[in-house]
């Protein structure tokens, strides 16, 4: 378990500019006084009492810290220190300065499948390590897949934002209906017991988008998106997948499986011939195939616009929600939407959407 230090963070770190902000805190660049090394400090406001609506529950912050402490891996953002005062907790995190992977890819003119696979392999390695520790992320999406330094000839993937992550105890039955609609697995929508397999569904969706610039289940409304997920309504439209290899499609199909027990695990995914070709013919197919860059650029531009629009919507909704529920001690389902390890994130939580979905059906 990570140690929460009672000392003043400013005695050890010089506080720099704001890198991102949310409803319950902000992320700032800091410089370690003893070494001169730059880090990212995540300042989180903590509730003063159980009935307070201002700030995060300390228990949820403790869980996030314990998870970060347990997964020291090159593919996961690193946690260095934790400081605590009466009003806030400060997480000293590895500075991830390379931006989002999808933004990095969108700047390219073309990208072979073999190049995209190198990024997917890193994501799977980091995720596989987490899963080996019985930890699920539960919020995998492009915004939470970053690059440590885009100037490097071989950029390193970093998974971030573990606010929804969960460490499974032996024999535990865990349920959650939080997440971002177009990336969540069917069992999340159905409020069924969850496992690390939910992350693998998200990997299938992310791979589909990466190759085609199209989201497999996204519809005009979040309710329709959730219905598409439950009915498994997706296809490989030739207009978007004409340059995609059959191995890549097979990889996706083995992840977008309704039954969690039948999905490939992270370990099995790393051995799939799309990631690790068995024959020269398989390797050659990857090098002849490429991602749909024209459509991918359009998808990424729309995604960035939605991120900025939805963050304003969510935080305004959260403010009005809090005003209406001042006397309630239940945790607000929108809280985590204004928090991120590096920057603000998007969209409403699936828990609210599911209630709307069930009431409209």
From TrEMBL:
Q: What is this protein called?
A: Death-associated protein kinase 2-like
Q: What PANTHER family does UniProt report for this protein, alphabetically?
A: PROTEIN KINASE DOMAIN-CONTAINING PROTEIN, SERINE/THREONINE-PROTEIN KINASE 17
Q: Where does ATP bind?
A: 42
Q: Which InterPro entries does the record associate with it?
A: Kinase-like_dom_sf, Prot_kinase_dom, Protein_kinase_ATP_BS, Ser/Thr_kinase_AS
Which Gene Ontology terms cover its molecular function? ATP binding; protein serine/threonine kinase activity
Under the heading SMART domains, the entry gives: S_TKc
Q: Which GO terms describe its cellular component?
A: cytoplasm; nucleus
Sequence ranges assigned to domain Protein kinase in this UniProt record: 13-275
Supply the Gene3D superfamilies for this chain: Phosphorylase Kinase, domain 1 (3.30.200.20), Transferase(Phosphotransferase) domain 1 (1.10.510.10)
Q: Which UniProt keywords apply?
A: ATP-binding, Kinase, Nucleotide-binding, Serine/threonine-protein kinase, Transferase
| One example of a Gene Ontology biological process annotation | positive regulation of apoptotic process
Positions with biased composition (Basic and acidic residues): 327-339
Instruction: Print the organism lineage.
Output: Eukaryota, Metazoa, Chordata, Craniata, Vertebrata
Region ranges (Disordered): 326-361
Q: TM spans, by residue?
A: none
The similarity comment for this entry is: Belongs to the protein kinase superfamily.
């Amino acid at each position: 378990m990570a140690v929460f230090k009672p000392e003043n963070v400013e005695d050890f770190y010089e506080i720099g500019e704001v890198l991102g902000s949310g409803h319950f805190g902000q992320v700032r660049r800091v410089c370690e006084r003893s070494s001169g090394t730059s880090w990212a400090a995540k300042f989180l406001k903590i509730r003063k009492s159980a009935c307070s609506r201002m700030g995060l529950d300390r228990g949820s912050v403790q869980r996030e810290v314990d998870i970060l402490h347990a997964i020291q891996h090159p593919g996961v953002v690193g946690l260095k220190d934790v400081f605590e005062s009466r009003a806030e907790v400060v997480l000293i995190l590895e500075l991830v300065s390379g931006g989002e992977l999808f933004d990095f890819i969108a700047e390219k003119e073309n990208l072979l499948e073999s190049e995209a696979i190198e990024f997917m392999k890193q994501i799977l390695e980091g995720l596989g390590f987490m899963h080996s520790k019985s930890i699920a992320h539960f919020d995998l999406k492009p915004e939470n897949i970053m690059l440590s330094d885009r100037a490097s000839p071989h950029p390193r993937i970093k998974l971030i934002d573990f606010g929804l992550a969960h460490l499974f105890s032996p024999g535990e039955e865990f349920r959650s209906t939080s997440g971002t609609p177009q990336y969540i697995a069917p069992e999340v929508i159905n409020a069924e017991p969850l496992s690390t397999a939910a992350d693998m569904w998200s990997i299938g969706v992310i791979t589909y988008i990466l190759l085609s610039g199209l989201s497999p289940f996204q519809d005009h409304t979040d309710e329709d998106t959730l219905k598409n997920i439950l009915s498994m309504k997706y296809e490989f439209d030739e207009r978007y997948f004409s340059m995609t290899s059959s191995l890549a499609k097979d990889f996706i199909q083995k992840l977008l499986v309704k039954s969690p027990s039948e999905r490939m695990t992270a370990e099995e995914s790393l051995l799939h011939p799309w990631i690790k070709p068995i024959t020269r013919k398989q390797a050659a197919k990857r090098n002849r195939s490429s991602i749909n860059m024209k459509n991918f650029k359009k998808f990424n531009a729309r995604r960035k616009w939605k991120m900025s629009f939805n963050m304003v919507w969510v935080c305004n909704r959260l403010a009005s929600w809090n005003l209406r529920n001042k006397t309630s001690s239940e945790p607000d389902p929108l809280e985590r939407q204004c928090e991120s390890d590096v920057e603000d994130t998007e969209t409403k939580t699936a828990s609210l959407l599911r209630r709307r979905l069930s009431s409209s059906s």
